[in-house]
Description:
The complex is a heterodimer of chains A (197) and B (261). Chain A folds into two domains: 3-53, no CATH class; 96-158 and 166-196, no CATH class. Chain A is built from eleven helices and no strands. Chain A has helices spanning 3-7, 11-19, 26-35, 40-53, 67-79, 96-106, 110-117, 128-138, 142-150, 175-180, 186-196. The longest helix of chain A has 14 residues, at 40-53. Chain B is mainly α. Chain B has two domains: 19-147, no CATH class; 160-260, no CATH class. In chain B, helix 4 packs antiparallel against helix 5 and helix 10 (204-214) crosses helix 12 (237-260). At the A-B interface, helix 2, helix 3, helix 4 and helix 5 of A face helix 4, helix 5, helix 7, helix 9 and helix 10 of B.
Amino acid sequence: MTAEQHSRPSEEEVLLAFSVEPTHDRKTLEQYLREYPEHAKALVACSIELMVDATRSDDVAVTSEGAVDRAWQRFQTVVSQPGDVLVTNPFATLNPTAFRSLAKRLDITNLLLVRLRDRAIVAATIPGRFVQGLATELGATAEAVMDYLQSPPAMVSGHSFRSVVKPAVTEQISFAEAIEKSQLTPAQQDALKALQD
Amino acid sequence: MPEPLKRKKKDGTSYERPPEIEAWLKKLESVEAAERLRQFATLSRKSLGHVPSEALVYFLRRAWADGMQGDFEKIFRILMNRIEQSLCSVISDSRMAGARGIREEIMDRFVERIAKDCKGRTGLLDFYEIRFDKAFAAFRTSALRQIGPSVVDTVPLGTDEDDVLEISAEVEAAAADFLGGEPEKLDDPAFRLELTAAIDCLPEDQKQVVGLLLQGFQIDSKDKDVMTIARILQCDERTVRNRRDRACKALKAILQKENAQ
C-alpha cells in the first residue's frame, strides 16, 4: 500500500477537522468538498447538523437510566483488552441490509464480503486499492481496516453459524483464490484481478 | 501551563485551543483537584460556573496520564452524563425508531475513542478540546450515517419517486412566497434562528437542499467550475428545485403553526 493511500483521512477525521474550523460558511464547506470529494455527503450532512445543532437545547432532555454506568463498564472492558493495538471490527454495526448494500457498492458478492468480514482471506494478499475502497465505504481508515483484516481469523459472529455443525475457525485463503470461489461474475473477477496488478 | 495539543493540521501547524478554553484550563489548574471536580459536576450550561466540556476532556486525559484513576472515573462519568443528555436531546425516543439503541451505540463508539486515546493511539480527542459540541456533532453525524435509521420520523412530505415530476402550482407558490416574496426576512437573525430550528424537522433530502441554500450555494450553473447544489448532491437540478419547493411549503406550515402557539 502506498503512503498516499494510507494518508487519506477517514470520514470521521475529515468531519472532526471540519467541525473545529472557526467558521462553517459556504467557503469552508466548498474547500472541504473539493479536498475530500469522497466524503461529500457526510460533509453536507455535517455542515447542516452543525447549523441546526446550535438551535437545540439539551437542558430539557430526559436521560436514560444507567447509561453512564454502562459507558464506564464498556470503557473498562475496552481499555483492558490485551495488546497495544485495539482492533475494532468495522463490520460489526452493519445490519443485513447495510451489509448487502456495501457489497453492492463495492460491486462484489455477499460471499466475498463475508469472507473479508470473517478474515478468511490472507490480509497480505488483498490489494491496497481494494482495502482503501472498503475503508472509504465503511467510514474507517485503511489502516484500521487493515488492522482488522490482519488480526487472526475467528468465529466472529453468531449469524455465521446457524447450523448443527460445530463451528470452527475459518481457514484462510488467498485473495486470488477468494476471487475464484466467491460466485463473482467474470466482469467482477476481472475488475478485482486488475487491482492486483 | 496547559499542555499544547499534539494533532497537526494539514499544513503541518499544530491545532490550538481557543483563547477562552486556554483561560479556563489555566484557571482550573490553579485550584485543588477536589474543588476542580466539584466545579465539573455543574451540569446545566445555564448555571454560573459551568465548566466547558473541552476542559473536561483535557483533565480527563491528564488524569489518565498521571495515573489518577479515581479522578479519571469521576470526570469520565461527568462527561458521559453530559453526552447522554445531549444525545437524548438530538436522538429522542419520539423522533427516531430504536433511539435508545442508537444512543448506546454512539456512546459505545465514543467510549472506544477515549480508550484508544488512553492507549496513545489516535490523538482524535484533541478535536474535542477545541470545540467539543461541534466535534461531537460531527462524530454523531458520522456514526448516524452508518448506524442510524434511513428515515428520521418527520412529517410525510413526498417521496423520491415524484422528485423529477412537475410539482403543483400550489407548492411552487408556497416556495415563492416563502423565500421569493420576502427574501430580506432571511437577514433577520430571529427569523433565521426560527427557520434553522424548523429545518431540523424536514426529511433528510429536503434538509440538505435548504441547508445548502442557506449557506449560499446556488441550485445550478452553466459554469462547470461553480460548485452547485445539484453537483454536490449529484442529482438533477429539477430534483433540487422540487425538494426546495416541497421543503419551503413544509417550513411555512411549521413556522405558521409555531407562531400561532
